[in-house]
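Hi there, hope your week has been kind to you so far. No rush at all, and the record is pasted right below.
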Amino acid sequence: MRHLRDVSKTNSQQEDDKKSRLTSRQLQALETKNKIYHAAVTVINEKGFHNTSIEDITNYADVAKGSFYTYFESKEAIVFYTFQQSDEMYEKAFAQIKGEDFLDMMIHFVKISYKEYEKRGKGIIKAIVSGYFTFTDYNFYSEDRDLLKCLNLIIEKGKEQGVLDNEIPTGRYVNLLLSTLVGVEVMWCLDDQGNSLSDMIADAVMVTAKGMMDSRPED
């Protein structure tokens, strides 16, 4: 089985390498970008994406309005940046579960990663989900995303253990899992009962994964 580290360096390692090569001015710019980003997430979670203006964000961050456009070309760029930052979360989750059996591996992977994802706040996650339908030209789940890489490796583990059908393409299994993840995200955004996203995801993925295992032909 391929290991995630064989695919690429982790995002955290890449970030550490980049930071070690930055000048003091560049580090200050990165700090300002992060300040604006975290201000944007906070305000969007409080007011909602469409009710948040660039001025709201820069006022909260206590920076000049023009500073926003130095780092983000639009408010929508905050959504894309949030989505892209999730890859490190998936890598860290995979590192914790890669020695487990398929079913435990699958459930623990989504439980750990989506518990962290949920911390970003419902407002920004709603904006991401809305983006699935608004930005149709943007491939949110391209094959180079670490979520897809992790799911591929988990499926390969299931095939190696003989609990998944080797005749079914790995990509087909991954698409089934991805459909489950995205579907639960949408339902969670509509939920008004205060349910946990990670709990909802784990419950749904358990059903999906068991169905995948049950579909394996009998020997």
